[in-house]
Protein 1
Amino acid sequence: MSSGDQLYEQAAAVLSANDRQTWTAPARGPYPHQWLWDSCFIAIGLAKINPSRAVIELLSLTRGQWSNGMLPGMIYDTAVIHRWEAGIWGDQVESPPGVTTSALTQPPLLAVAVSLVAETLTAVARRQFLDTIWPCLLAYHGWLYRERDPDGSGLVSLVHPWESGWEDTPYWNQAMSKVSPIHTSMGLIYWLRGFDAGERASGDEVGHMRSQLKLLEQVDFDSRRMLKQSAVQVQDLPFNALLIASNRALAEMGEQYGYGVPINLTTNFAAAEAALDELWDPASQQYYSRDRLTGQLIKRPTSATFVPLYAGVAPLRRARLLKNLLTRPGTYWAHYPVPSVPVSDAQYDERRYWRGPTWVNLNWLIIRGLEAYGWTTEAEHLRTTTTQMIARSGFREYYSALTGDGLGAHDFSWTAALYLDLAGNQ
Ligand code: GLC
């Protein structure tokens, strides 16, 4: 058996160990609940080994959908929820009966995952799957544009860093500096979860997040009131780029398999493609997120700038500039790329969460983006270094871009799932 085969089997074993029958926990111990974008990445990998289980993973997300269409970032496993957790992650306001969820969303990758899983199914199974999940997809995209882009600008706004999936990234830290932090002692929480505090968001950062959560609670997590009252409103780059990728997946599936997309949504989709342009900064030749209230780009360099490559929305000239930025030695092209913050940046922190480490889900998006633009050499290099990093340190939550050391949770589901997808394509 080659070492590649062994790794493939180990990846499948990680997913079965984290399997909760109808959904998969991101990791045993620290992450016992279901998370929205985790389940999407997990389903993409599961489709390689067990397509019907991948279908179940995605359908299980629909049980948490609010009556207004929102898909929550988290659906709690009520058997293991700690009393302090519900308070930290938000009220349940409109969770469907019998399900408890967080009140914020997460990156909208569901339509992409649905289309990748659908391709692996028989025609009959695909029809059944799409018939069931289609209304959920339309309601979710409808909610995002109706509630989070009330002016029809084409860009949706996030009101909390947890929605972005990149909670302590430098651009969110800058956005959150408008909020006064609530003192939070994270030491005990990290200890309970078995984390090294130096690898997680700092106490101050979490203090800002809790404070913003309090404000959102006061307006009952009502998006319209949030957009009237919150000082923090970010047109988050990776979120909007992934939404475009999902819009495209939705439109293509509609065409290919005969499902309708309402006209108001297709209008939103067109506006989104054009509006992403506004997040490009010609001076530094990269994309950034934007503060909705000031209209200013938040110019903190992060690997988020490469996510538009995945969506295929960067025009070729710009995509070339991004590829050059990605592969410039000493910035993003570290020993184990792609660091979430360039290693040369003053904000770079080798071991801390989204402030420097390499994440496999981001690498997967960038690899697929490079391939779509035809840059197979760079994509192959990144696929090889990603595999080497996993072979060296196991299926970790994130890794040092300098040494490949594993960081955060062990036996992490999306790392295992995306390994299955990348290895299956050799
Ligand atoms: C962390 C990550 C987030 C992920 C969650 C569960 O909060 O920042 O992106 O979804 O863990 O894995």
Note: The mean pLDDT is 93.
Protein 2
Amino acid sequence: MRKIRLAVMISGRGSNMEAIIKECRKRTAVSEVVLVIADRKDTRGIEIAQRHGIPCEVIPFINRFQFCASASKAVTEHHADLVVLAGLMRILDSTFVNNHATLNIHPSLLPDFPGLHPHRQALAAGVSMSGCTVHWVIPEVDAGPMVAQMTVPVFSNDTEDSLAARILVKEHLLYPLAINIISATILAVWDVALNDR
Ligand code: GRF
């Protein structure tokens, strides 16, 4: 069966990437990770991807134009259908996001607390609930159409670390689930298009 080919982009520890790889290894998976792109070498994420035998490309960030052009070339060469940002600490330009359907996960209930330090922002705002959001990527940071959210409680004695850890558990559930639903939908649309010919 044709699967949706994913290119995952990371900057660091890659725990969301690992959750996605594990989901893709299930017998019922509708997507597969065909490429991991990192903006730096020696990340834990690269180590994990290599351990799983997934091709990795390290594209050091020199400037946004060069980074996005190289990443776009790699995505195209690996015939990826969907780009998945999993902790990439770079902003992609409009050429990239217009050419490649791209998802991101952000550890807050968007539209609240976009950008840097979302857990710190949530604690400072005194909210009683936070969570994570999967959304489509547009050139504006953390502002694209939302796909799915999961919530967690915020406790009065929470620190940034304790809140981040509670949300991360949900991220590892939500991101693979959202990717499955989107991949299954794309496959169904392709099927209908083929049968209509
Ligand atoms: C996650 O909290 C994700 O929501 C954010 O960056 C962090 C990446 O963590 N965009 P990891 O590299 O997936 O462990």
Note: The longest strand covers residues 31-38.
